[in-house]
Design brief:
The protein has about 240 residues and is of the alpha+beta class. It has two domains: about 1-95, Alpha-Beta Plaits (2-Layer Sandwich), CATH 3.30.70; about 105-240, Pseudouridine synthase I, catalytic domain, C-terminal subdomain (Alpha-Beta Plaits, 2-Layer Sandwich), CATH 3.30.70. The chain is about 20% helix and about 30% strand. It has five helices and ten strands; from the N terminus they run E-H-E-E-H-E-E-E-H-E-E-E-H-H-E. Strands 1, 2, 3, 4, 5, 6, 7, 8, 9 and 10 form a ten-stranded mixed sheet that branches. A hairpin with a 5-residue loop joins strand 8 (about 165-175) and strand 9 (about 180-185). Helix 1 (about 25-40) crosses helix 2 (about 70-80) and helix 3 (about 135-140) packs across helix 4 (about 195-205). The chain is globular.
Length: about 240
């Protein structure tokens, strides 16, 4: 038995999310189909996390177990030629049998790109907001997320995670080129749609739609059925995974 690790990127625009779904085009589904054609084994791809529909990955990590003896260099070449153009294989390597893309990961980080003036060519890759953003002011709103919290109020009701407690290790808000704003969020792990709800809640405060203590009250209430302000995920990227 061998354990194969894959590092790759994808454009999430035309996928129905990451997780395999019947009769739906997903990242996991496309990779598993490609791997079956190469090694003729039914593969269960284990991954560092799942992204929502339309969300992208600058770095995703997966692994799978196989009896195949195909050399790694040949596997790289075959995957590059069989996967669709919106998935880019960066690296394939054989790892220890106890490596697990999800459970071995220490931290994960996302970057969210925002702009008040999105062109038609950026529609799939940047989230449009209703006005200019001062990154320092936005950070002052978002810094309450830092630390260990119960995020029951910041996940979708169909989230399968049993434990809603997560630790946010780092948040940065900064200016990028052409007036764009970046938000970097690092945590030990994330719940379904958590990042989009966190950012949507912060933007609602920023633009005066919610009171300044809106996030604090949601963190304290632990209400999984409460209001969810979900921002468009076009500008959201799984950015890095650390092991």
């Amino acid at each position: 038995m061998r354990n194969i690790k894959i590092i790759y990127q994808y454009d999430g625009s035309d996928f129905f999310g990451f997780q395999r779904q019947p009769d739906r085009r997903t990242v996991q589904g496309e990779l598993e189909k490609g791997l079956y054609k190469i090694i003729r084994e039914k593969i269960n791809l284990i991954s560092s996390g799942r992204t929502d529909r339309g969300v992208h990955a600058k770095m995703q990590v997966s692994n799978f177990m196989t009896e195949s003896k195909i050399p790694v260099d040949r596997l790289v070449y075959a995957l590059e030629n069989i996967t669709p153009k919106d998935i880019k294989i960066l690296k394939v390597e054989e790892v220890e049998l106890d490596f697990h893309s999800r459970f071995s990961a220490k931290t994960r980080a996302y970057e969210f790109l925002l702009t008040p003036t999105r062109s038609v060519f950026e529609t799939r890759y940047i989230t449009e907001v209703r006005g200019d953003i001062d990154p320092d002011r936005l950070y002052n709103i978002m810094k309450v997320f830092l630390g260990i919290h119960n995020f029951d109020g910041f996940r979708m009701t169909d989230c399968g995670g049993n434990n809603p407690v997560r630790e946010i290790l780092e948040i940065r808000c900064y200016k990028k080129e052409n007036g764009k704003i970046g938000i970097y969020i690092k945590g030990n792990a994330f719940l379904k749609t958590q990042i989009r709800i966190m950012v949507g809640s912060a933007l609602a405060i920023y633009f005066g739609e919610k009171e300044e203590d809106y996030i604090i009250k949601k963190l304290e209430s632990h209400d999984p059925k409460g209001e969810k302000i979900v921002v468009d995920g076009a500008g959201l990227y799984l950015f890095e995974i650390n092991y």
